[in-house]
Specification:
It is a multi-pass membrane protein. The chain is globular. The two termini are 21 Å apart. It has 155 residues and is mainly α. It has one domain. 70% of the residues lie in helices and 0% in strands. The protein has helices spanning 27-56, 60-69, 72-89, 96-116, 124-139, 142-154.
Length: 155
């Protein structure tokens, strides 16, 4: 599906039936697309720089946290690579929705770890991040069909 023909279930006052507002050709739709893209870039930067990088360079705070978890450096590097890949994939059109879902699942795990191991000290952070990730996954869901077609063509 192209970005201008993604289906929706209900028409709105500013968008005709069959067009998702965030992907419509109206001025409001263009602004929504730009805002969504900006959100994706901000989240990608957060995951790559603020979250993955400290793990991948073995910053003392990351090492300490993963040692306390009992996961050691293998767990730290694994989570760092997953966050790096997810952050980068948020910027690749065909992977945006899948990346947002995968990072959302990672944040569910982070929330559970924060609550059970670290007494909920930073439990709000993964919960806050789930909201924009869910928005991106939903708004870019039409790209999932493109990804499936691409994978079928490669098989």
């Amino acid at each position: 599906m192209s970005e201008t023909t993604a289906p929706t279930t209900a028409p709105t006052a500013s968008a005709p039936a069959g067009v998702v507002v965030a992907e419509s050709a109206t001025a409001r739709g263009r602004r929504a697309r730009i805002a969504l893209r900006g959100l994706q870039v901000l989240l990608a930067l957060f995951y790559v720089i603020a979250s993955a990088l400290p793990k991948l360079i073995a910053h003392a705070s990351a090492v300490e946290s993963f040692d306390e978890l009992g996961w050691g450096s293998a767990g730290m590097y694994t989570i760092g690579v997953l966050e790096l890949a997810g952050g980068a994939a948020l910027l690749i059109p065909v992977l945006q929705s899948v990346a947002a879902m995968a990072l959302g699942a990672l944040m569910v795990g982070a929330f559970v770890v924060q609550v059970t191991v670290f007494d909920g000290q930073y439990a709000a952070t993964p919960l806050i991040l789930i909201v924009p990730l869910a928005l991106i996954a939903w708004a870019r869901r039409s790209h999932n069909a493109d990804l499936v077609r691409l994978l079928k063509r490669q098989a």
